[in-house]
Amino acid sequence: MRFLKLISTMFLLMSSVEAFAFESDYIKGVSKEQWSIIKKIGDPLNCEERIAKLDNLVFPKITTTANGYTIGGEYLITAEKFNKQKAILKRSLKKNKITVLDAGEYNIDETIRVRNGAILVGKKGVIINSSKVDDAFIINSGSIKNLTIYNAKKVGVIVEKEATVYNVVIKNTGVDSPNNSRGVGVYSTGLNSHSNCIVSVEAFNGYNEIGQSKVTSKGGNADGFGVKFGAHDITFIDTHGHHNSDDGYDFWKGGDEAPIKPKEPTIRIFYSSANLNGKNPLTPNADGNGFKFGSKNKHNKPKRDKGARLIYGSVACYNLTTGFDRNGTPMKVIGMNLSARGNGKKGYDNVGNKKSSDKFKLNCKMFPRK
Asked: Which of 15, 58, 174, 292 is deepest in the core (most CB within 10 A)?
């Protein structure tokens, strides 16, 4: 009977898995009122519902019987166990819907793949040391939450389709990698990358050493967030790209050949920031724009930007060059309740800014100046 009672308690909320796994001067969180505003403007991916599910996960309770048998413990991985036997994480992500990482530093030596509905959640203080891998994470129809990822050689998180990335900090991508041509925090590329929600994510200090030209080398390709070469249908909420060697956000050829209408918003950004890009304190820097909304058709022919870009309630502060940069894209850029200050060249380059009342819209004073 005692054993049966223990089993009946397995699916109780684990209160020790906290909402935030780290301290951040940038991530603000998203209030109910903000979600209401976002929904009115457009949340076709139901990011609010996807985040609510992650915030209300029910975890098996870990219980040990008198004879030492552990119930509900298969899904919980400690840093000590992982660093001795790294295959346990791959097995858990394949076997269990939810995998929880206990506090500590996890030294990965291969890319972590989260797919087929799997969810990976960190307790407070989970750090992923990615210095031995090109790409720390690849997410395909999966979710990650409450992680700090640092020193990936090329990309912190690659999102393929139907990925949810929530409460994640990504730093120093590519900084110590001489063969790195990307240095991106969150990367979405290709037609098969779509339907992704990126919420409460900070990406900073990205750098790339090499590139296809002088323009793209020595930091000229390292962005906080990239949506490129056909990637489409992605929503950014409470995301923050700062101190990257190139841009905070780059949407070069985003939407190319995707099954979308030219005026349909396929990249949506709410309550986000792009600050101090082109000012990576650890590396050389490139031009350093805040939000780069695409590119001219003459570049990378026959590839072209496709789909409108929508940005709301966001800021671009103290970037080396331009805050909100159309960068020649012929696509519609819908800008509302934006703020720009202290950018080296200009705040807005052919990007409109329709104003309305919103007490939640961001401003530069909310973020560190350096």
From this structure: 174
